[in-house]
Specification:
Layout: H1 3-9, H2 19-28, H3 33-46, H4 51-68, H5 93-116, H6 121-142, H7 145-165, H8 173-185, H9 188-194, H10 203-216, H11 221-234, H12 238-251, H13 256-268, H14 272-286, H15 297-310, H16 314-325, H17 332-348, H18 352-363, H19 372-380
Helix pairs in contact: 2-3, 3-4, 4-5, 4-6, 5-6, 6-7, 7-8, 8-10, 10-11, 11-12, 12-13, 13-14, 13-15, 14-15, 15-16, 15-17, 16-17, 17-18, 18-19
C-alpha cells in the first residue's frame, strides 16, 4: 500500500476500502440500486458483525425507495416551499419495516461497541451515518421535520465526536456540514417548532465542511458534492452549483439524476434555451439502450415543460407536461402536478375542453390531493397566466 493510501486507510473504516464495497458504490452512482444492493449483501455476509456493512444496505435501500417515489428530483426541495408543501407518500409496510429494522440494527451494533470503547471512531461514524440517512428518509417521505431534526443533530454530534478523535476523518465532515448549513437556513420560528433552538449553524462553515468531505471523503465524497450543489442552488449560487454538478455528470455520465440536475441548474440560473437543449439531450440519451438504468422520464419532461413555459413556448410546454403525466412509473404527486400545469397551458392556448379534462384529473379523488384545490378553482375560472 502506497503512503497516500495508507494515510487514507488510517482515517476511515477499513471496510470502506474493500474492493466489493467500492464496486457496489460504482453501481450505486449510476442508480443501479439492485446491483449495488446485491454487492452490499455480499459484504454483509462476509462481515456480518460490522455496522458499516449494514449501513451500506440501509443507504441503498433508502435511496432506491426515494427514487421510486420521485423524491430525488431536487426541484422538490431546493427551495423553502418544500417546508410547507405537504405531499402524501405511500411507502409499503415492507419497505418501511426494512428501513426501520436496518436503522435499529446499526444503531444497536454501534451502541454495543461504544459501550466497550467510547472512543471507537468507526462505530461513532457508523451510528451517525445511519441516523443521518434515516433523518433524510423521514424528512422527504414523511415530512417529519421534528424527528428528522433531532436525528440529524444526533448524527452531527456523533460526527463531531469522530472529528475530535481524528480531525482527518473526512467522511465525518459531511454530517456536520449538512447540519451547519441546514440550521443556518431555517427561520427562527421553525427552529422553535422542531425543538433545536440554541443549536448553532453557519452556511459558510457548512459549505467549507462539505467541500472538505467532497475532496477527501471515502464514502461521502460524491454525496457531499451532491449536497454542495443543492445548497449552492438553494442560495441562488447557480454558477458555482453548475460547476460542481457538471463534475459529477462528467464522472458519472450514466447517472440520470446527475445529468438531470445540470439541466435543472441551467433552468434556475436563467439559461432557458440552453436548459431546453440539456433536457432534450438527457431524454435523447434515455432512448439509447441501457444508457440509463430505470430513468424516471417524468422528471425530465416536467423540467423541460417548466423551462419551455418560462420561454413562452406554451404549446411545447403543454405537450411535455402531458408526457410527464403519462409516464407509467410516475408518482401520483408528480402526475397531478403535471396535469394541473398542462391544464393551465391548454387554457392559455384557448383550448378550454382540454384544460378542463386535465383539471378534472388533477382534482380527482383518491391518491395525492395536493393539487386538488387549485384544480377545482381553475375548473370554475380559466387560467389567464396572471
Amino acid at each position: 500500500m502506497c503512503a497516500s493510501a495508507q494515510s487514507v486507510a488510517m482515517h476511515t473504516d477499513p471496510l470502506n476500502l474493500d474492493p466489493t464495497v467500492r464496486a457496489a458504490y460504482e453501481r450505486f452512482y449510476i442508480l443501479d440500486y439492485d446491483g449495488a444492493l446485491k454487492l452490499f449483501g455480499e459484504v454483509t455476509k462476509a462481515h456480518p458483525q460490522e455496522p458499516m456493512a449494514w449501513d451500506y444496505v440501509l443507504m441503498a435501500t433508502i435511496f432506491r425507495e426515494l427514487y421510486h417515489q420521485d423524491l430525488l428530483d431536487t426541484t422538490y426541495y431546493a427551495h423553502d416551499s418544500f417546508l410547507s408543501t405537504k405531499r402524501d407518500v405511500v411507502v409499503t409496510p415492507e419497505s418501511r419495516q426494512t428501513i426501520e429494522g436496518l436503522t435499529t440494527k446499526v444503531v444497536g451494533m454501534c451502541d454495543a461497541r461504544l459501550k466497550a470503547n467510547a472512543n471507537d471512531k468507526n462505530a461513532l461514524f457508523a451510528r451517525g451515518y445511519a441516523k443521518g440517512m434515516h433523518a433524510a428518509f423521514i424528512t422527504l417521505a414523511d415530512h417529519s421535520f421534528t424527528a428528522a431534526a433531532r436525528q440529524g443533530l444526533q448524527a452531527r454530534n456523533d460526527s463531531e465526536s469522530v472529528l475530535k478523535l481524528d480531525p482527518q476523518y473526512a467522511d465525518a465532515k459531511m454530517a456536520v456540514g449538512l447540519q451547519q448549513f441546514a440550521v443556518a437556513s431555517l427561520p427562527r420560528f421553525l427552529r422553535m417548532i422542531i425543538g433545536i433552538v440554541g443549536v448553532t449553524g453557519s452556511k459558510q462553515q457548512g459549505i467549507d465542511l462539505l467541500k472538505d468531505a467532497a475532496a477527501h471523503g471515502v464514502v461521502t465524497g460524491v454525496e457531499s458534492r451532491t449536497a454542495l450543489s443543492l445548497f449552492l442552488r438553494h442560495d441562488a449560487r447557480y454558477a458555482e452549483a453548475l460547476t460542481v454538478q457538471r463534475g459529477l455528470a462528467e464522472q458519472y455520465p450514466h447517472d440520470y439524476l446527475f445529468r438531470l440536475e445540470v439541466a435543472n441548474l441551467m433552468k434556475d440560473g436563467g439559461q432557458g434555451m440552453a436548459a431546453v437543449r440539456e433536457y432534450e439531450a438527457v431524454l435523447a440519451d434515455a432512448q439509447k439502450r441501457n444508457y440509463f438504468i430505470d430513468p424516471r422520464l417524468q422528471m425530465a419532461y416536467f423540467g423541460l415543460a417548466d423551462t419551455q413555459r418560462g420561454q413562452n413556448m406554451v404549446r411545447e410546454a403543454a405537450a411535455n407536461y402531458v408526457l410527464a403525466a403519462t409516464q407509467p412509473n410516475c408518482s401520483d404527486w408528480l402526475r397531478k402536478r403535471a396535469q394541473l400545469n398542462a391544464g393551465e397551458m391548454f387554457d392559455l392556448l384557448h383550448d378550454r375542453g382540454q384544460a378542463v379534462r386535465y383539471y378534472q384529473m388533477a382534482a380527482a379523488g383518491g391518491g395525492d390531493q395536493s393539487q386538488a384545490d387549485a384544480a377545482r378553482k381553475l375548473l370554475r375560472n380559466a387560467y389567464t397566466g396572471k
